Amino acid sequence: MELMKKNIHMDRTRLSTGMQISLEDDRNIPDVKPDVSALVYEQGQIKIDEVKPVNEHVTVKGRLLFTVLYQAGEGEVALASVTGEIPFEEQIFMEGVTPADNVEVTARIEDLRANMINSRKINLQAVVNLHVKYEELYDEEAATDIYQNEPIEYRRQPVDLAQLAIRKNDIFRLKEEIPLPSNYPNVFEIIFSTVTLNDVEFKTLDEKISIQGDMHIFVLYEGEGEEQPVRTFETVIPFSGVLECYGCTESMIPDIRYETGHLEIDAKPDFDGEERMIGVEMVLDIIMRLYEEERVEMLTDVYGVTNDVDTHVRTAELKQLLARNAGKCKIAEHIKMEDSDPKVLQILHAEGNVEMDECQVADDGISVNGSVLVKVLYVTGDDNRPYGSIRRQLPFSYTLEVPGIRGDDMYTIQPELEQLAVTMLDSEELDVKGVVGLKAVVFRKLIQEIIDQITVGELDTNLLNELPGIVVYVVQPGDSLWKIGKKYYVSVDAIKEMNNLTSDEIRPGDKLLIVKYPNGDG
């Protein structure tokens, strides 16, 4: 007698922890840059360079890349910027982690501020949240059938599972060249720029994954000419492409996220050799998990009718897809300027970043509390300080519907700012409207008993002799033909034949004739 087994490929998060670090550094303004009159705007990005697990710890090395836009001193070009990086190295305690484990680190800038020390030096301060996760890949072998040469009874139960089919990291390159409108001056120097992605969607196809979305580009540059005017250029470019993914099928469940890697924006010559093209090169680091749903017929119980059959059962942790859902949360706020803020004459650029502060299972859903950090760059009405910026943290709350979700279910949520519009109400108040998109993949944690092995021996003759040769059995609540047959070493088919039953359905109070034959098969 031999068990037929199926290998089930699974993943789970074994360890997860977070850490908040503070970064600070003073930076001198390079000699080629003008003096600082006032700081206007700052932006940053975290690059993780190395993740090295050791016993009980994970070493994380990375850099904070920053750009600070500032107003130059009197007699200089109105705006200038300084860029740089602040390296960091942290050791994070993770009980049980080993050098062989696969550890993933994500980073988020919670706060970044620049302060002016003097006209040639600035101070950078940042608060960064690091989240460290150890994902374990493992296989479970589930008995799905049995090969036997003696009469036995067995039953199977269909179980819907979500198996990990593909787990890999990849990169996707974006490259665009955008011409300036004809009424814009040529580019002398790009002072400041941002690129953000919105409405990014991944779709599984046969042997590949499609990606599409929108790329928002903002460029502040110094124009050519004697006056060298500062100009802004902003546009939205849709993009699409495919990633080769061997083994991928259209029916697979994607759990895919991306992080911005290398980014480069520069001015390029057009066909006439004039600097009128904005070149954008961006690399997206793609972290993908693809799952495949399959109904597996698992062997759940076995008993013998001529031999004693003993099963060894163990508990396995499996998972099945509970839901894939998406929701949209609107934000609408009025931002009032502080007394110290210069008045708004014209909005140049606005951007936002979604931060999820708390996620927890609620009734038939996942409650998400977070905020959108909105930053606005604008022209002021003050000739002595012609540019200004403000930042505001706008809270939001939303419950993503997931019917039947339980507290121990596993989920991932990807937030994205899908829309943002900032308009002037007057010189001291701005109107902000936006849409936060939330996409969730939810898995049910399934604890399943699996038959691990089976042994066959001789029937206990004393036990067999104690059983009556013939009995009229009165069905009790909770009984089934399987339970009754197992008790008397009689096959289910034999009980049905003896009692002229056409189905396995029985009810409490029914009377069944059970006959024990010398060959033990009913």
Top keywords for this entry?
522 residues; mainly beta; 3 helices; 20 strands; 4% helix; disordered C terminus
Radius of gyration, whole Å: 33 Å
Assembly level:
single chain
Query: Largest sheet, if any?
Result: 3 strands, antiparallel
CA distance, first residue to last residue: 21 Å
Q: Averaged pLDDT, please?
A: 90
Shape: elongated
Low-confidence stretches: 518-522
The portion of residues assigned to helices is under 10%
**Secondary-structure element pattern, one letter each:** EEEEEEEEEEEEEEEEEEHEHHE
Strand content: over 45%
- The number of helical segments is 3
Total number of strands: 20
Strand order of the largest sheet: 1-6-5
Q: Which secondary-structure class do the elements indicate?
A: mainly beta
What does this structure look like?
Helices cover 4% and strands 73% of the residues. The chain has 522 residues and is mainly beta. The strands form seven sheets. The protein has a three-stranded antiparallel beta sheet, with no helix packed on it. It starts with a strand and ends in a 7-residue tail after the last strand. Residues 518-522 have low confidence and may be disordered.
Q: How would you sum up this structure in a few lines?
A:
The chain is mainly beta and 522 residues long. The chain has helices at 461-466, 481-488, 492-498; strands at residues 2-28, 36-54, 57-72, 79-93, 103-118, 121-147, 152-179, 187-205, 208-223, 230-244, 253-269, 275-304, 308-336, 344-362, 365-380, 387-401, 410-426, 429-457, 470-474, 511-515. A hairpin with a 2-residue loop joins strand 5 and strand 6 (121-147).
